[in-house]
Structure formats: structure tokens, C-alpha cells
Design brief:
Length: about 70
Amino acid sequence: MEVKRMPYFAHDGLTFHYKDTGEGEPLVLLHGLGGDAQQPLELLQPLPGWRLISLDARCHGQTNPSPPADS
């Protein structure tokens, strides 16, 4: 499956990485413990009419935690 975009978004002090492929209705996929955004995409064939969005959860894959808080 060809992933056409590999963007990032910031939320709550984290920079989340996600993969976005296909066109149509969005379907958000989540990986299992220790996985990353690629894991659920490996389980599905491209689905006509569906946009598959898979993200790296906190502390997984390319999602980056916030810098340590000042003490």
C-alpha cells in the first residue's frame, strides 16, 4: 500500500506522526502495544472510497514527547 502523506500534528505538547492514504470517507486506525502507524496499514488492502489514517500513539514510532518540564 502506497502512503501518500506522512505528516505530523502538534497536540498537548506532543508532535504526533501519522500516515494518510487513499481518498474518500476517513477511517482512523490504531496500532497495538509496541506497534506504530504502519502496523494497521499492513493488515488492510487499499479500500476503494476510503481514506485510511493511522497514527503513532504517545511514545511509539515517530511521535515525539514534549521536552521535560522546568523544575
